[in-house]
Design brief:
The protein is mostly beta strands. The protein is built from no helices and eleven strands.
Length: 126
C-alpha cells in the first residue's frame, strides 16, 4: 500500500554534506526510519521519526552529524547528513512502520517495518 521513493544519494567529498529524501505516498504510518547497510554487514537503523515529528532518535554512529526531519505538506522525511566520512559510504534505505506492535518502542527505532524504499548509494571519497 505505502510507496516510498528515495532520492539524494551520490558522491561527496569527506567533510561534505548530503540530504536524502524519502517521499511517502500517504501519511497513515506510525514512524519512518533511515537504515544503512554496508556489504556483508547487517542493515542498521540510524535514525527514526514519529508521524507527528515530535520524536526523533539517532544511533551513536551518526549522532551530532545527521538530522532527521519531515515536511508534512510534502509527506517527505529527510536525512540531512553533514561531516561525512568514508565510513558513511553505504546504501541508505528508508522504511515505514505502520503501527506499533506489542512491546515495540520508537525510542530506539525498535519497530517492525512494513515497507521499504529501493535504497540509495552514498559514496564519500576524495
Amino acid at each position: 500500500q505505502l510507496q516510498l521513493v528515495e532520492s539524494g544519494g551520490g558522491l561527496v567529498q569527506p567533510g561534505g554534506s548530503l540530504r536524502l529524501s524519502c517521499a511517502a505516498s500517504e501519511s497513515h504510518y506510525y514512524a519512518i526510519a533511515w537504515f544503512h547497510q554496508a556489504p556483508g554487514k547487517e542493515r542498521e537503523a540510524i535514525s527514526c521519526i514519529g508521524s507527528s515529528g515530535r520524536h526523533t532518535h539517532y544511533a551513536d554512529v551518526v549522532k551530532g552529524r545527521f538530522t532527521i526531519s519531515r515536511d508534512n505538506a510534502k509527506n517527505t522525511v529527510y536525512l540531512h547528513m553533514t561531516n561525512l566520512v568514508t565510513e558513511d559510504t553505504v546504501i541508505y534505505y528508508c522504511a515505514a512502520a505502520m503501527y506499533v506492535r506489542g512491546k515495540e518502542s520508537i525510542l530506539e527505532c525498535g519497530l517492525e517495518y512494513d515497507y521499504w524504499g529501493q535504497g540509495t548509494q552514498v559514496t564519500v571519497s576524495s
